[in-house]
Amino acid sequence: MKKTDKPLGAHTRLLQSGRTNFGTSSDLVNPPIERASTILFERAEDLYSGKTRRHYGRIGTASQEALRAAIADLEGAADVVLTPSGLAACTMALLAVCTTSGRSKNPAHVLIADCVYGPTRAFCNDILGKQNGLEIEYFDPRIGAQIADKVRPETCAIFLESPGSLTFEISDLPVIAKVAQAHNIPTLIDNTWGAGWFLKPLALGIDYSIEAATKYHTGHSDVIMGAIAARDAKSAARINNYNRLTGMTVSPDDAYLVLRGMRTMGVRLDRQQQSALKIAKWLSARDEVVQVLHPALPEHPDHAIWKRDFDGAAGLFGVIFKPTSPQKINAFLDNLALFGLGFSWGGYESLAIPCDPQITRTAKPWDAPGPLVRFNIGLEDVDDLIGDIEQALAVLA
Ligand SMILES: Cc1ncc(COP(=O)(O)O)c(C=O)c1O
Fold first, then answer.
1. Active-site amino acid positions
2. I need a labelling partner for 383 at 20 to 30 A (CA). Which of 46, 55, 121, 354 fits?
3. Boundary-marking domain end, from 240, 262, 284
4. Is 254 strand, coil or helix?
5. Is the shortest distance between the CB of 117 and ligand 1 below 6 Å?
């Protein structure tokens, strides 16, 4: 491909990134899917020369390398590691920093935002905490500069998820990153909602931006994958080494699909943003609703931070309904014709789930006045979606 020196817009960059040949002689637009364990060398002396990254299938071939480069470009990262799932990206990054930070004096201490994805929380409690003796402390995601009061000499990581993917609090990333840097503590964020498109955590001082690429990158609800983007050479070396030694890898076929999804992620997210905001505003005015949890609404408690740090809002938001029974909420969800009932989000299709069974809080109790339902807004016509919610709401009247 020809190169240009002119600065490019975000959509153009998303289409151009990762489109080098990575050791192949392909003239295709997209990278070839190279299935390989064994990669052959011409000469024996090259086998151990360490000259080429491309020396064994587990390290990755063309499609994995192209995807890593594309995500690195999107996130402004020094390097990217791919993992078999979004959860694996969260857990591997935590393991890498907690076991290699040099701070793991007994017992090491890990600070986790109270709003993190449930399985990430379960991993921290069980594997890090119960089985390996690390002390896990949860904190209010709105803690801001007071994170300084929680930091200890043995703190080995601060893990955030912003916004929380069920409860939608936004954390003050630059303030938390500054405190962490002053104490030399690695910071990590589950950036699945911002997707690297609406939020660039590394530019705000966070060390690792982690995503379930399963969601917006893939965009079609048919691949499970995660990515860890590292801010600088030092953080990249730590995660690369861990990845190399633990042997985590993803298939070339899956990497191909995620990269193909990424090429349209910008247009999908821009449209999902528009539709979600329209639906969120419409729901805010409904009698059945107490509060819509969408950071782009001016009445959201963290709207000012969202406006300062994010370039937009994804298609996932929550709605707190007036107190009603779980049976009525289920009847509302059953009445939806265009929204699927299913876990996950970020695909082209709209989804809805009741959230209360998933919410576990210990630092800051979740005391919503009514049941919480989460909507993933897809690419359907927005007025069709509003009409569908309107007819389904009849059971809550
Ligand atoms: C915020 C968040 N992080 C991580 C994950 C885990 O992703 P995966 O399903 O690819 O393991 C999910 C999945 O729903 C999620 O919602």
1. 58, 117, 190, 215
2. 354
3. 262
4. helix
5. yes
**What does the pLDDT look like over 171-204, one tens digit per residue?**
999 999 999 999 999 999 999 999 999 999 999 9
- Whether residue 1 lies inside any domain: the answer is no
Same domain, 144 and 237: yes
Cβ burial of 348 (10 Å; 0-12, 13-18, 19+) is middle
DSSP letter, residue 340? B
Q: Report residue 170 as tokens.
A: 């936004």
The reply to whether 293 and 204 lie within a common domain is: no
Q: Is the pLDDT of residue 24 over 80?
A: no
pLDDT tens across 30-82, in order? Answer: 999 999 999 999 999 999 998 888 999 999 999 999 999 999 999 999 999 99
Return the ∠ at Cα 212 (arms to 115 and 203), rounded to 5°: 80
Can you read off the two tokens belonging to residue 287?
A: 């009698």
Atom number of ligand 1 nearest to Cα 165: 1
pLDDT band at 107 (very low <50, low <70, confident <90, very high): confident
Range with the lowest mean pLDDT among 100-104, 147-151, 235-239, 378-382?
Answer: 100-104
Is residue 278 located within the same domain as residue 389? yes
Do 120 and 29 share a structural domain? yes
Pocket test for ligand 1, best of 165, 216, 221, 317 (most atoms within 8 A of CB): 165
Query: For residue 395, what are the CA distances in angstroms to 287, 354, 374, 385?
Result: 13, 15, 18, 17
Ligand 1 in reach of 376 Cβ (< 6 A): no
Q: What is the CA(190)–ligand 1 centre distance, in A?
A: 9
Q: Is 162 in the pocket of ligand 1 (CB under 6 A)?
A: no
| Ligand 1 lined by 86 (C-beta under 6 Å) | yes
346: containing domain: 265-396
Last residue of a domain, one of 239, 262, 285: 262
Residue of 254, 344, 355 to test ligand 1 pocket, by largest number of atoms within 8 Å of CB: 344
Give residue 102's pLDDT band: very low, low, confident or very high (50, 70, 90).
low
Residue closest via CA to ligand 1's atom 9 equals: 86
Q: Are 108 and 232 part of one and the same domain?
A: yes
Residue 3 lies in a domain: no
> How do residues 232-267 score in pLDDT, each as one tens digit?
999 999 999 999 999 999 999 999 999 999 999 999
Domain count across the chain: 2
